[in-house]
Amino acid sequence: MMRLLPWMYLAVAFVFIYLPVATLVLFSFQDGQLPVPPFNGPSLRWYGDVLGDSRLTAALINSVLVALGASLIAVTLGFLAAYGLARHVLPGSALIRALLIAPLTVSYLIVGLGLLIVLTQAGLGLSLVTAGIGHVVINLPLAFAIIFAAMGAQQQNAERAARDLGANEMQVILLVTVPMLAPAIGAAFFLSMTFSWDEFIISFLLTRFDVTLPVEIWSMLRSGLSPRLNAIGSLVFLVSIAVVLTLELFVFRKRRS
Amino acid sequence: MTAPVSLSRLNHWFGTYQALDDINLEIAAGEYVTLLGPSGCGKTTLLSVLGGFIAPSEGSVMIGGRDMTRVVPAKRPTTTMFQDYALFPHMSLRENVGFGLRMAGMGRAERDRKAEAQLSLVGLGDDAGKRPHELSGGQRQRVALARALAVEPDVLLLDEPLGALDLKLRRAMQDELKAIQRHVGTTFVHVTHDQEEAMAIADRIVVMNAGRIEDEGTPARIYRQPASLFAADFMGEMNHIPVHVTEHGVETPFGRLQLPAPRRGAATLCLRPEAIGTTDAQITLGPARVRDAAFFGTHIRAHLVPDAAPDLVLIAHLPPVDMPAPDDVLVISAAADTISVFAKEP
């Protein structure tokens, strides 16, 4: 009995975590109007419906664009900040580091509201670009923290050797630092992607006509439950899983070898 | 390629700490020089100044007749072989060795050919496609050497290059480094704290202490006639005998000796353990009692208490033939040219 207890605990915990997701995925295959028991099916009609819906596919593409663009910018800026702070003695570098990481502690709602006020005051229209700016704000501290933590003496010595062999600063960064930090840079990029992909509040506040997928889903939710939403949710989940698996396969595995 | 190096009036401070103190040094083209000293003596700082990683507070660095004092490492005719090798882990050995050539704008085919030739020179010609993590420490060290030599520098700087290797491999690599240096003709400046390594490898040794040059010269000269007490001690085991210098000569417990000596007053007489023998030599030290003796293969290391100075314990390296027993009495003497006398530090 005592031997079984931990296993039962494990099973309960996993059921608790994965039952909602499993239900969501299961009822996305429902052959009927409502995503509630009894289960009829399976049927792919809701997937066909979702993929045939031009607003949803547009929102899906918007989400991918925002996630890619915001992550690329956040990782580039985070890398440059980490490189500068790790390689140069700057006055007040501890304060600069703290200021770079601080936005992690600010809630997305506050970040989104602040940006909304600033953008409105500045007279800039809301669009996918403004949502992307919001995502850069929330992802930059994370990218900076991950990449800064990975910078060590090993790269520094290799950079010194590269300079000694005639490399200029650009060549040092592109040929030595970035390849040596590839696992950390990749991890930062894929984590930014997943956060940006799922993010709702900032996208909701900072978009107007073109919206990202979570915002589109939210507006559909207002007209009640439908297996369509389950199908969309399953697709979103599938993409997140794909990103995490890519991260695991190409980034963490490489680091271990 | 090769070039002479001329350092004049170099001073360097890290904050208030003076790491280099008025360094003047001439290195001839094609010479193998070692900078020898304990940690913190300034030898690595001096190498960094040569390589361009540290701009000295004062003084000038001339390489091949050109002023290089403020020139960045990339633009200097020097390359450095770093203590931890600093190989690029994401590149094959061929790409590592060809990196400097690539920076110089050489095309892929030609630099691959040259990189493979360099790898062959250090005995790794068949491993050009491997990554650094597949190699042993000694092999990585060879790759670092090949990479630094591939760009044909005028001066190669080696920062404790053998420090991470075990003793046997270190001795083998010393011979190899020396052979490669003769083959390529490049000026080598090698930093070490191991005096045996310095003696085995160098044309000339520069002994450093507290940011200053204590002595410079051939290994034999520094070992036999060191210029300072520090150099004498650093080059190997040394007996210290307190003496007094007067106008008549050097007053020692073993009588008055006529030796080249510094200013009058208290002084220290230095005598190498292997200079003490039981056969007749110019300077007789008289009978001495054996306190203990141990067999070392090439010699017998004995502690001797001379009757003339019972407070003194002399270390002697005797021929490994007759093992003396404790309390045996030996009549010992030493050759005059093995003795140095230095004034006591005030």
The counted number of beta strands of chain B is: 20
Order of helices and strands of chain B: EEEHEEEHHHEHEHEEHHEEEEEEEEEE
Q: Would you state the CATH class of chain A?
A: Mainly Alpha
Oligomeric nature of the chains: heterodimer
Number of helical segments of chain B? 8
User: Could you please say which CATH topology of chain A applies here?
Assistant: MetI-like fold
The description of the largest β-sheet of chain B is: 6 strands, mixed
| Share of helix of chain B, binned | 10-25%
* Strand segment tally of chain A: 0
- The gross shape of chain B turns out to be elongated
From the helix content, strand content and strand pairing of chain A, which structural class follows?
mainly alpha
Return the domain count of chain A.
1
- Rounded to the nearest angstrom, the radius of gyration of chain A is 22 Å
The second-level CATH architecture of the largest domain in chain B is: 3-Layer(aba) Sandwich
First CA to last CA of chain A: what distance?
Answer: 40 Å
What does this entry look like structurally?
The complex is a heterodimer of chains A (257) and B (346). Chain A contains 12 helices and no strands. Chain A has helices spanning 4-27, 45-52, 54-87, 93-101, 108-122, 128-150, 153-164, 169-180, 182-198, 201-206, 213-221, 227-256. The relative contact order of chain A is 0.14. The mean pLDDT of chain A is 84. Chain B is of the alpha+beta class. Chain B folds into 2 domains: 5-229, 3-Layer(aba) Sandwich (Rossmann fold); 237-343, no CATH class. Helix content of chain B is 25%, strand content 35%. Chain B has helices at 43-51, 93-103, 108-121, 137-150, 167-184, 195-201, 219-224, 229-234; strands at residues 5-14, 17-27, 32-36, 58-63, 66-67, 78-81, 155-159, 187-192, 204-209, 212-217, 239-246, 249-252, 255-257, 265-271, 276-277, 283-295, 300-306, 314-318, 329-334, 339-343. In chain B, the strands form 4 sheets. Chain B has a 6-stranded mixed sheet, sandwiched between helices. In chain B, strands 13-12-11-14-20 form a 5-stranded antiparallel sheet, with no helix packed on it. A 5-stranded antiparallel sheet of chain B has the order 15-19-16-17-18, with no helix packed on it. The mean pLDDT of chain B is 87. Classes of the chains: A mainly alpha (257), B alpha+beta (346).
